[in-house]
Amino acid sequence: MMTTSRTLSGRGAAVAAAPRPSHRRPLVVSALCWLVVLFDGMDVNVYGAVMPRMLADPGLGLTPAVAGTVGSWTTFGMLIGALVAGNLTDWTGRRPVIVGCTLLFSAGSALCAGAQGVEAFGLGRFITGLGLGGVMPTCLSMVMEFAPGARAALTAGALMTSYHVGGMLATVLGLTLAADGGWRSVFWAGAVPALVAVPLLLWLLPESPAVLLAKGRAAEARKLAQRYGLRPPHATTAPAAGARARWHAALALLRGTGRRATPLLWVASFCGLLLVYGVSTWLPQLMRAAGYGPTSSVAFLLVINAGGMVGMLIAGAVATRFGAARVSAVWFLLTAASALLLAVRLPLPVTYVIVAVTGIWLFSAQVMVYATVPTLYPAPQLAAGMGWATGIGRLGAVVGPALGGAVVAQGAQQWAFVTFAAVGLAGALAIHLAGKTPCHSET
């Protein structure tokens, strides 16, 4: 009896000592990533918000064609950042990558603020892009890991609302702060994340249990998963480590049924990010060229991001019921229709409504492409599937601003919206066909 009593007492002590999972802890991870992506959205959209003022600044020497090229430098940096972030995650973990990328895009924004010429400004935007490109997929992977399963689409949508809050903040800064302090003051505001977000990340953000497992720290991974109320990670859910392993994982995506679904997914991601960054960069200038006033032209960026924030919540909820691929295809079609309407000069109140509705479809169409990935690939291929869909999509982000700049430089602004509509149709077809070709059975 005494032995039994001691045994039970020991078990009770062990249970008492074991960390209790808390629903609040995963919310902390989501909240921190939400804050970082907010600053991401601010730094991406700030260029479009102040571009009319920059084009009017003779000391900078910016022209429409050069402005499109500089926009592509930003997204080219994002492409490199997204690709490098994977290897850095293998070596250091997701937490240091998120912290380092936040410092990087803050430093790039500060460099833009002090730039005395186009070359220095372009370098600053490239450095900003490096940080932005690495932080977005890393934050997305982090929050989806801490809120897995059927809530993945809703979680992705909720995270991306912060991107649009950041875009709205950039627009407000462009309308207010730039009016008194000039366009440089807005880029100085882009350096704030280093002071606000980084201390919070270092204090509160945990490491990814899956990454810990991939690095051979299984006991630590299980303890962290228990603390946050997650399922213990398994070897089949850990991301592939190392450049060679990642390359083999990419080749596996193109075998079996993946040889059909994977290229279609990549095309959809390419189209989605081409639209997101093409429109975000050029909307104020396109609307100004169409005859709208300078204040209204910049305000359209605020309105489209407000629509985007609403759209993320709608898309996440609808995708939970009807499937991410189906929602993404419909959203692409609606984006194409809205872009065609924007090519027509309409009364200002009507145009505001169309721009807001465009935002509902435009941004969440791309996020639902990402949310489609878990439905296409088995668990061992999820990390590779998400990484390559994001990376290929970044090529579209590079093309979008340059394409808009080329059209504006030719004085054919109305054709920019027609071009965006054609890209939306291509994205709808690609994600629809990808959703009809799941990769589970032959991989």
Short key terms for the protein model shown above:
443 residues, mainly alpha, 81% helix
Number of strands: 0
Listing every helix as H and every strand as E from the N terminus to the C terminus, the arrangement reads HHHHHHHHHHHHHHHHHH
The averaged pLDDT comes out at 82
Largest sheet: none
The radius of gyration computed from the alpha-carbon positions, rounded to a whole number of angstroms, is: 22 Å
**Alpha-beta content class:** mainly alpha
Share of helix among residues? over 70%
Provide a count of the helices: 18
Strand content: under 5%
| Overall body shape | globular
Which stretches are low in confidence, meaning pLDDT under 50 for 5 or more residues running?
A: 1-19
Distance between the termini: 56 Å
